[in-house]
Amino acid sequence: MNKDQLIREISDYLKQSGGNPREWYVGISQDARKRLFQDHSVDEKKDSWIYRTADSNKEARESEDYFLNKVGTDGGPGGGDTSSTMVYAYKKNSHTNP
What we know:
Layout: H1 3-17, E1 24-29, H2 32-39, E2 49-53, H3 57-71, E3 86-91
Antiparallel strand pairs: 1-3, 2-3
Helix pairs in contact: 1-3
């Protein structure tokens, strides 16, 4: 998926699910499901979450940068490695990490 389409789909989901951008965490990974449900403790059935696969690591990083620096979501740049093409987002909750 190209960067523009990925950003549009995740942005639409964030708007539809509601909340301030700071209530959302955005990151990149080679395995978004592991990051979401194991590392961040997102509840697959109850929490709001989404992930999409970018065409390249460069597009994934540019998408992550867009959400962190233009939209204002939580997250940390520089995660993942060169094989990380999945961009994920979830709405933070008392049981998620962070």
